[in-house]
Write a structure and sequence with these properties.
The complex is a heterodimer of chains A (246) and B (256). In chain A, 37% of the residues lie in helices and 25% in strands. Chain A has nine helices and ten strands. Chain A is globular and about 55 Å long. In chain A, 39% of the residues are buried. The chains are: A alpha/beta (246), B mainly alpha (256).
Chain lengths: 246, 256
């Protein structure tokens, strides 16, 4: 499923976050959006799933312009999405099993036994076993992300969004999550859009990379294209040098 | 001069804006009540939390309210030989006023604050955004069951509080202050009308609506991490308590 943002503008209290932004995310690929913290990456992601509506411009999911849809139709489109939040956003009051079963119970008529099978299968996909009865507070950061991903995969989405999936994890867990994203994309053939400021991760997993700066996509292409970009902002970002405006 | 009016008028504008948002939330909540799925399981879960789990605190406060009322009225009425009216006074005060008001204030402290804190935490940890991404409306899933449960359970708790308060008053009046048991009960039957009890219960249902709606509204609009959750919780208790007492006056003026 293709994702397309056309001339998207968004401001909060007079501060421009997205400025006439254009981006086309290719279907069935992993696209990573890189950019500095607080640069509007999460805002961009929330536009894609309709949590925020643009001040002007359009957001297309497939052929549907979601920025113009009412809540009912938007909810139908959202059933194609799975989203892994930065801190997983698991429901504190539910067990791991209930967290993963939640979207299935909401949107399907599967029996309890069938749902249990799906939950176990999704947990197996993300490399977890025997955690269905645990509460989210009993899990480590990496496990929470895995459970979050299992929940995002519950309805076999066509688009999976990842909001800074490796932030706050140790290097070994970062690598494990990177591998999991690649494996998940191969397994599901979904369109994956990842927000990150982790350059190593980005080059490990991305088919395409887009650099967000000053509310615009200033560079887009294959990881190699980004790696050898002549744009000084991109070069500095990849080298980990601070970007100063004159 | 313009700045002065801006400075003075701003709190009023904000107050009206907040009131408007609460009304919009109420309309949205009502509209979700009549649309499937009806969230019966969630409603029962909230009824247990609002009602069953509030019983101990309601019983204790109800009993001691009735008991202190009996002592106070006894000493007042004794001055002109009206001790026989203690039972009726306790019963009327409990059913018309103190039962609904004390119950609502106690439940606000226990339940309204918990609603604001729980929904506020869900807001700042992106759990509410997660609901949206899963095509689940948080007003229907989180707020509607809490509002329905509060409207239904506050009258039940108030009946318990009324009864326990009168029993407490009986214990103090008859056992400790030696008022004749028969007269105590007879005066209650003579002076307390069914409408006193029913109007008290109607008031308590309105209080249930207020405390749940304010708690959910403050929680839903939380921002700013843990500090924001604390702020929302405190504000919800203060606003609910004040609103309950203000609405109590107007409801009483209209009903009795």
């Amino acid at each position: 499923m293709k994702i397309e943002l056309l001339n998207v503008c968004k401001s909060f209290k007079g501060q421009v976050v997205l400025d006439n932004l254009n981006l086309t995310v290719e279907p069935n690929k992993i696209t990573v959006i890189i950019g500095k913290s607080g640069g509007g990456k999460s805002v961009l992601l929330k536009h894609v799933i309709g949590l925020i509506r643009p001040d002007s411009g359009s957001v297309f999911i497939g052929d549907d312009e979601i920025s113009a849809l009412n809540d009912k139709k938007l909810n139908e489109i959202r059933k194609n999405f799975g989203m892994l939040f930065q801190d997983a956003a698991l429901f504190d009051s539910m067990t791991v099993g209930d967290n993963i079963a939640f979207p299935i119970r909401e949107h399907t008529r599967f029996s309890k036994a069938e749902i249990d099978v799906i939950v176990k299968e999704k947990l197996r996909q993300v490399g977890l076993k025997r955690v269905t009865q645990k509460m989210p507070s009993e899990l480590s950061g990496g496990m929470r992300k895995r459970v979050g991903l299992a929940r995002a995969l519950a309805l076999d989405p066509k688009i999976i969004l990842f909001d800074e999936p490796t932030t706050g994890l140790d290097p070994i867990m970062c690598d494990a999550i990177d591998r999991l994203i690649v494996k998940t994309q191969r397994h599901t053939n979904a369109t994956c859009l990842v927000i990150s400021h982790d350059i190593d991760s980005t080059f490990k997993i991305a088919h395409k990379v887009a650099m967000l700066y000053d509310g615009k996509i200033i560079e887009y292409g294959s990881p190699d294209k980004i790696k050898w970009s002549e744009n000084p902002v991109v070069k500095n970002f990849i080298a980990g040098k601070s970007i100063s405006k004159h | 001069m313009l700045r002065f009016f801006e400075y003075v008028g701003k709190p009023f504008v904000l107050l009206i804006e907040a009131f408007g948002k609460v009304i919009l939330l109420l309309v949205s909540t009502i509209s979700w009540m009549v649309r499937p799925p009806y969230r019966i399981h969630e409603i029962f879960k909230q009824m247990e939390f609002v009602g069953v789990n509030s019983l101990p605190v309601v019983i204790i406060t109800g009993a001691f309210t009735g008991m202190v009322l009996a002592i106070q009225t006894y000493y007042g009425f004794k001055m002109f030989g009206g001790e026989s009216l203690v039972g009726a006074t306790v019963a009327l005060s409990m059913t018309r006023e103190l039962g609904p008001a004390i119950t609502a204030l106690m439940v606000t402290g226990r339940v309204g604050s918990a609603m604001a804190a729980e929904i506020g935490t869900m807001r700042v940890t992106e759990q509410i955004d997660a609901l949206y991404t899963m095509s689940v409306n948080p007003v229907q899933y989180l707020i509607m069951p809490r509002v329905i449960a509060s409207i239904m359970m506050l009258p039940v708790l108030t009946i318990v509080s009324d009864f326990i308060g009168i029993v407490g008053g009986y214990f103090v009046g008859v056992r400790l202050l030696n008022i004749n048991s028969g007269i105590f009960v007879a005066r209650i039957i003579e002076f307390v009308a069914l409408s006193d009890i029913v109007n008290g219960l109607i008031k308590s249902a309105v209080f249930g609506l207020i405390l749940s709606l304010v708690g959910c509204y403050k929680g839903f609009g939380t921002f700013g991490g843990a500090a924001g959750v604390g702020r929302a919780t405190t504000q919800s208790v203060v606003i609910s308590s004040v609103s309950i007492l203000i609405s109590d006056y107007f409801l009483t003026a209209v009903m009795f």
